[in-house]
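Researcher: I'd like a structural prediction for the single chain below. Treat it as a standalone chain; there are no partners to consider.
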Amino acid sequence: MLRFEPYNLLQSELMPTAIPAAKIKDYHYVCLQAHEEIQADRHANILGFYELPEQEISHITSYLESIDPSFDTMVVLGIGGSALGNRALYSALRTERNLPRKLIVYDNVDPVFLHEILGQLNLDTTLFNVITKSGTTAETMAGYMILADLIKKRYPQDYTSRIVITTDKEKGFLRQVIKQEGYHSFVVPDNVGGRFSVLTDVGLVSSAFTGMDIAALLKGAASMRKRCGELEFLANPAYLNGLLHYLYMREGKNISVMMPYSNSLYDLADWYRQLWAESLGKRHDVKGREVMVGQTPVKALGTTDQHSQVQLYTEGPNDKVFTFLSVENFTHDFTIPNLHPDRPEVSYLGGRRLSELLNAERLATEIALTKARRPNANIVFPALDEFQLGEFIMLFEIQTVFTGKLLHINPLDQPGVEAGKIATYALMGKAGFERELAEIKAYQEQRKL
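Model: Treating it as a single chain, here is the predicted structure.
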């Protein structure tokens, strides 16, 4: 079971300047109110991610049983919430689980990136999964049109068996394409936003394709949901961590660093970055008042970034909250040979396991940050498996919504992202955006002055 160790976020002899436990009790009513708002949203069917552990997955397993067994690679075409979760789960387990099939995520319109992906593919054994709820996401649809054209020309007789589409159940351009072409399709639920969608068809199809146990993912999520239903906040990891981050934001600590001590979990920090940034970074609160709140998420990798970032973290501005991700038991490990027993510079390493060194360095970084009075916590994976990844996902999705309630903002929308989409549509000549294009041209002329 995933463990949350918040010791150096709370006041202690080691961290006398941290948040006192008594202050947690002072916020009991505020937290209770946030909890009640969450329950109301669940009742109104707004927070659909809460209900995902009970979903039916037989349509996914049936599809995978029906495809040609020669398919050994899936390319996901998506961006943001349609991509980051897929990559995070695959990266976490591809080596630990020795996953039999490969996943590649195309989530940027960089043409060189697409060229590199095509260069490593055997198209004969590759499935393409197009993921966009609206069916109008410019980046995803550009990739779809390039790759669908390629697949149709290469495989005119059976191209429909090589493309699947994950989109809105009823609406949108891609739903029309599905009907016209006969592609197999999956659904992005109406009540689950993109960045909360990894435990829907969005993330489960690719995960099941590669060989993950998606039922165990959902069981882990259910287990964490139960833990986070606890109203005793010191026993509720999502509410406790959300409240502590909220209180640290009020003290000016507006940067949240997630630092996995595992290469396998590095992409999980990418998933967290979108969830935390897009959900909490808001100009207005729910009453329309300008508040400009949010905490900037940053990812780092232990031990790599001990040699690039920790100097800043320990001696630079005290404006950050740190979360380590650590793994207790690795499936693969190495014992360091004692090649130079007569040299004290390196002989202390001889006979120790590489995982010991990795976790010792994590603890050393924790100690250094704590001595520097920098708040930090540790989330421990006893081992990397589907159950604990499901726990982690549900933990941070609940924590994010709860923190949004404390900030009195809407954690489910993204108006700043929409503004950028509109500008892109105008620049690319999409009909209906002529006024916006005129404004952009005026802006460009102004830049020349």
